[in-house]
From TrEMBL:
<dbReference type="Pfam" id="PF00441">
    <property type="entry name" value="Acyl-CoA_dh_1"/>
</dbReference>
<dbReference type="GO" id="GO:0005886">
    <property type="term" value="C:plasma membrane"/>
</dbReference>
<protein>
    <submittedName>
        <fullName>Acyl-CoA dehydrogenase</fullName>
    </submittedName>
</protein>
<feature type="domain" description="Acyl-CoA dehydrogenase/oxidase C-terminal">
    <location>
        <begin position="229"/>
        <end position="363"/>
    </location>
</feature>
<dbReference type="GO" id="GO:0016627">
    <property type="term" value="F:oxidoreductase activity, acting on the CH-CH group of donors"/>
</dbReference>
<dbReference type="InterPro" id="IPR006091">
    <property type="entry name" value="Acyl-CoA_Oxase/DH_mid-dom"/>
</dbReference>
<dbReference type="InterPro" id="IPR052161">
    <property type="entry name" value="Mycobact_Acyl-CoA_DH"/>
</dbReference>
<feature type="domain" description="Acyl-CoA oxidase/dehydrogenase middle">
    <location>
        <begin position="515"/>
        <end position="609"/>
    </location>
</feature>
<keyword id="KW-0560">Oxidoreductase</keyword>
<keyword id="KW-0274">FAD</keyword>
<feature type="domain" description="Acyl-CoA dehydrogenase/oxidase C-terminal">
    <location>
        <begin position="623"/>
        <end position="767"/>
    </location>
</feature>
<dbReference type="InterPro" id="IPR046373">
    <property type="entry name" value="Acyl-CoA_Oxase/DH_mid-dom_sf"/>
</dbReference>
<dbReference type="InterPro" id="IPR009075">
    <property type="entry name" value="AcylCo_DH/oxidase_C"/>
</dbReference>
<dbReference type="InterPro" id="IPR037069">
    <property type="entry name" value="AcylCoA_DH/ox_N_sf"/>
</dbReference>
<feature type="domain" description="Acyl-CoA dehydrogenase/oxidase N-terminal">
    <location>
        <begin position="433"/>
        <end position="510"/>
    </location>
</feature>
<dbReference type="Pfam" id="PF02770">
    <property type="entry name" value="Acyl-CoA_dh_M"/>
</dbReference>
<dbReference type="GO" id="GO:0050660">
    <property type="term" value="F:flavin adenine dinucleotide binding"/>
</dbReference>
């Protein structure tokens, strides 16, 4: 939850945004791109805002190490391609300088950087130097009381105006950090003609440069480790700046297509354009979540040093993703601007050139993801989330859940470990029902429900802990999820006191199981087109229901179903609907299983032919059904998503284990690295959304979660089959592999049920981005 911006971070963001707007927004970038200068920007950031001191030690005049503040500044600068050396001076050189041992020279330079009176760069290699920031390309030899330094760098942004050049060098196999003043290298740096004129670059070439011993700021293995950590922090700030640039390109494109009209309407109303913008929006939200999560991880480790290296790996993944997303968004900016996007007058070319330059200068996304994948294969990294520093109460809860699971998920319940997941939803139903009662006896049902209603009234954070530890222990898919996760909070919000008293106890005791009656053959993603009818019996006041529901999960194993039906004659669309609670064991209801692509029968068709819902079992009044149904779907995307992600992590671990046995594990390393990065981004995104909901600050970002996870999970299934190779053509006898094959087949449904990808993109574009709806056609009644 600590990835959410604090009031202080929002103040930093807003202050910098106002300053950059007064400075002309993109105007300084245009000016510099056309050969001009924008020195006043850096001066204002240093003197007026004092943001050059962010992230640097207070003892040297800085404002303290705060990664969330650093990435906040990086994002805002990126949005307008501000031609200032923030990343090179504060984020990269400043962080590396901090990693050196304290001393007069080091502290004096840090003070100058914090005050904005000096600019600095780190001399590094080019694309061919492996990890260009962390692979020294300079060599030093001891000569008398000093050193002789030589080597040639790659293209270094902001080199030509640097007052300090930090040179990592190797001397007899030992890493040194050498400080060179600008005057010392004035004849050794050469200006290049940059692709991105807003970011001047130069090359440093040293040959037989003699230096005093005092030029060495630090050396040795311990320093090398601190330096790598500093560079990873810098990667995250660079990722934030690139993401900010991608946001800038996205926003100006969204504004342009809203104004541009073709064929008599705004081009923003065309579905092809809306889907492209919505997809980019989800990808940018994913990237922002990863950056914020990593920044929070770095800040936590500053107080309680972490040893798992997750934040550092997330920073490398974020840099790689940012390279790709900036390129994708800027390329689309040109395409969607049309011909004017190719002109110097419009801004897309500035973003595209920045994207091209950063992709070339940052070492390449493929190599970064491949290394993450190799770390997974070699066991240096895990797909399972590691809980960071926590309060005594949080730690105690984790231990309590883990201990209870270890004690109870054994014996008769041992076969349930890892069962009931994607494609396995109808596995061992009676044993899983018994497990629900065991959970209830342990007090682990109704965690978020208020104590007054029989729940435990747990906070969002504590519910997250339970779901993570439950999944970590291999807890089975919950048979009671629809009742506990969907209906119970709906009844708490909209039900009568009588309904709460009658239905909640069965849910909380794990003795009553529910199904969801929403989709119909002609009303899947377009739920408002449903035709199931409910008509009031004038004598009893009960509701008589006729119609059909489909894709009804576990209806054949459930006791009750909640049904969305049309209660008013002649009503269409969202009007005239009602939500009814109905027992499934009654005349007039016929349940027929649907055999799925993987052979399982988790879904059902449910036919209603004069079935009865009692008058007192209607939730809300006729006409209120749509609003209640949508609120219920909102509960579906709640806390349990973290447990779902833990299940995904276990599946990714299984795929990694397969890759270790593959003939060529390296062939799968990049895809594994991408899967890990996507999973971490989803985790941080879900935590951010849940935290915002708890604070009453929920935004449109939540709209993209279903689209994001379903596509990620489908890709994981495809990766599993790629790793299996020819063996994927045969049903595996090994349970772990068989479950992956089931997951692969079932995951094709996940981008369909709950709203297809295409419908999700419509919702994201229209509700999240406020893009115009497609012009609606005419129905027989004249409206639609």
């Amino acid at each position: 939850m600590d990835a959410l911006p604090t009031d202080e971070h929002m103040m930093i963001r807003d202050a910098l945004a106002r300053f950059l707007e007064r400075a002309g927004g993109l105007e300084p970038a245009f000016r510099v791109s056309d050969g001009g200068k924008a020195c006043e920007l850096w001066q204002g950031i240093a003197e007026e805002l004092q943001f050059t001191a962010i992230g640097l030690p207070e003892a040297c005049g800085g404002l303290g190490v705060d990664m969330r503040a650093l990435v906040t500044v990086g994002r805002e600068l990126g949005k307008v391609l501000a031609p200032v050396p923030f990343v090179s001076t504060v984020a990269l050189a400043g962080q590396v300088l901090m990693a050196a041992a304290p001393g007069l020279c080091r502290d004096a330079w840090l003070a100058r950087l914090a005050s904005g009176t000096a600019r600095a760069v780190l001399a590094h290699g080019g694309h061919g130097a492996g990890d260009c920031w962390d692979a020294p390309v300079f060599w030093a030899e001891q000569s008398g009381d000093g050193y002789v330094l030589e080597g040639q760098s790659g293209s270094i942004p902001d080199l030509m105006e640097a007052d300090l050049v930090l040179v990592p060098a190797l001397c007899a196999g030992e890493r040194l950090l050498i400080a060179l003043e600008g005057e010392t290298v004035s004849g050794h740096r050469q200006l290049c003609a940059p692709m991105d004129a807003t970011q001047p670059v130069g090359v440093l070439e040293l040959k037989d440069l003699r230096l005093p011993a005092s030029a060495v700021l630090d050396r040795g293995t311990a320093f090398a480790g601190r330096c790598r950590a500093a560079i990873d922090r810098a990667r995250l700030v660079l990722a934030a700046e690139m993401t900010g640039a991608a946001r800038g390109a996205f926003t100006l494109t969204l504004e342009y297509i809203a104004e541009r009209r073709q064929f008599g309407r705004s081009i923003a109303s065309y579905q092809a354009i809306k889907h492209r913008m919505a997809d980019l929006y989800v990808r940018l939200n994913r990237l922002d979540a990863l950056i914020d999560g990593a920044a929070a991880g770095f800040d936590r480790s500053a107080h309680a040093p972490a040893t798992d290296g997750v934040a550092e790996t997330e920073a490398r993944a974020a840099q790689a993703l940012a390279c790709e997303e900036l390129f994708a968004v800027s390329a689309e900016a040109i395409q969607l601007h049309g011909g004017v996007g190719m002109t110097f007058e419009y801004a897309p070319h500035l973003f595209f050139k920045r994207a091209t330059a950063m992709r070339a200068l940052s070492g390449g996304p493929v190599a970064a993801f491949r290394q993450i994948g190799l770390d997974l294969i070699d066991g240096r990294l895990s797909a399972l989330p590691v809980s960071g520093p926590a309060s005594e109460a949080e730690t105690g809860l984790r231990r309590a859940v883990a201990g209870w699971m270890a004690e109870n998920l054994t014996g008769e319940f041992e076969p349930l470990r890892g069962r009931g997941g994607a494609g396995d939803g109808d596995a061992l139903p009676e044993l899983r029902k018994a497990w629900e009662q065991r959970l209830a006896e342990g007090g682990w049902v109704g965690l978020g429900l208020s104590e007054a209603l029989g729940g435990r009234g747990m906070s969002v954070g504590d519910q997250v802990i339970f779901n993570e530890e439950y999944a970590r222990a291999g807890g089975p898919g919950r048979m009671g999820h629809i009742g506990e996760g969907l209906l119970a909070p709906t009844l708490a919000a909209f039900g009568t006191e009588d309904q709460k008293a009658r239905f909640l106890p069965g849910i909380l005791q794990g003795s009553t199981f529910w199904a969801q009656g929403y989709s119909e053959p002609g009303a899947g993603s377009d739920l408002a087109a449903l035709r199931t009818r409910a008509r009031r019996d004038p004598e009893s006041g009960n509701w008589i229901v006729h119609g059909q529901k489909t894709w009804t999960s576990l209806a054949h194993l459930s006791d009750w179903i909640f049904v969305l039906a049309r209660a008013e004659e002649g009503a269409t669309g969202r009007d005239g609907l009602i939500l009814l609670l109905m027992p499934l064991d009654q005349p007039g209801i016929d349940i027929r299983p649907i055999r799925q692509i993987n052979g399982a029968c988790e879904f059902n068709e449910v036919f209603f032919d004069g079935a009865v819902a009692r008058a007192e079992d209607a939730v809300g009044a006729p006409g209120e059904g749509w609003a209640i149904a949508m609120a219920l779907l909102g509960f579906e995307r709640g806390i349990s998503t973290l447990g779902q992600q833990m299940g995904f992590a276990r599946e990714l671990e299984a795929v990694v284990a397969l890759a270790r046995q593959a003939r060529e594990p390296m062939d799968h390393a990049e895809a594994l690295g991408r899967a890990w990065a996507g999973l971490r981004a989803m985790r941080h995104g879900a935590l951010r959304v849940l935290g915002a909901v708890e604070r009453g600050e929920a935004g449109p970002e939540a709209l993209g979660y279903k689209y994001e996870w379903s596509n990620w999970h489908r890709s994981l299934g495809e990766l599993a089959m790629d790793v299996l190779g020819p063996e994927a053509a045969v049903h595996a006898p090994e349970p772990e592999i068989a479950r992956l094959q089931q997951m692969y087949l079932f995951s094709r449904a996940e981008t369909i049920y709950g709203g297809t990808n295409e419908i999700q993109l419509n919702i994201i574009s229209e509700q999240g981005l406020r893009m115009p709806r497609e012009p609606r056609g005419q129905t027989q009644s004249g409206t639609r």
